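Entry:
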Amino acid sequence: MTDTDVVVIGAGLAGSTTAAILGRAGIPTALVDPHPVYPPDLRCEKLDRGQVAILQKTGLADIALAATTFDGAIRDGKAWIARFGRVIDKRPGGQYGILYDNLVNVMRSAIPPDVTNVVAKAVHIVTGDDRQQVSLSDGSTISTRLVVLANGLSVALKDQLGIERTVTSPCHSITIAFDIKPRSGRAFDFAALTYYPERASDRMAYLTLFPIGASMRANLMVYRTMDDPWLREMRHNPERALFALMPNLRRIIGDVELVGPVKIRPADLYVSQGHRQAGIALVGDAFASSCPAAGTGAGKVFTDVERLCNVHIPNWLASPGMAVNKIEQFYDDPVKREYDETSKSWAYRLRSMSIEEGISWRIQRRLRFFVGAAISAACKIGVISDGDQFVPEGWTQRLRDRT
């Protein structure tokens, strides 16, 4: 039996980041995951400035960002905003592109060697007010003071612990990802591009193009069901489906070729119930999901992990026991609660803003572009600072994103 202070189950983004922070802080930690190298997985493919600001608090930002492609360093460093086949704004770049599996493996590389890395599956957990027992698929057992459950969408361990997952919005959004390049062989004129839908009936949030290495990556966010005929067309004839959805897009990007496989991933919104238990803390998607279209997933993970590792775990380990009153401090953390609420509210707001036909939503769709253009104009003439020199935590960027 191995004995340690913290066992992290799951080595995706949340688990790997947790293990890296704890290990670098000198806290005895074991990381349990069946994959020695994280496999390809369609999830977060870029970080924005707000998410990087949270990541800075973990001490891992420099390591992670070194592996990304920053759109602000490409050509003129401007991200184009377009609709109806017209460019309506050009903003300073602020996106760091990286495939999810690469980001996870970079985080794994930051884990110190004294963290115990167990290539196995956790199959059973017994929790208590003092110590927890984790049984593994290789027949071994780990005794620990705290279990951090970071195993994403998996429900087997949660079912065993009596933690229920309540789906609040099935297939809330669908992410479609692919690489794209001009048929001319020339580079695109923009460093990055966000293209918004022309009609609510398109059931689309936006298309975003951003660089990852030498490739231009596309993330198309839509609100449809998985049996939608358009999705079938997108799988089998993606270029025709893309321009059928956005016929005026060709004015900006020209003739293009979709390179490699088209990946499609639906996302349910769900929350956990019965999770307030002694000896175990849920982080990231293990606790609650987020909508990829709203772009809050990585920020939600980094907020969970930063608060848990920098604030709560050191305090918990400083005194005996791991009773539920300790664990509740994490779930009631005001910073975590605020980000969870923001993530949830923007998931629903963006969906309504994109597809609802009511007059109030039509007005808001018009206003979002007017406000965004006004902010850009104010930045250009120096009324407000685009570099956020005198406002907290990327205020102008968040206001742009939210409009």
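The CA atoms of residues 41 and 389 lie 36 Å apart.
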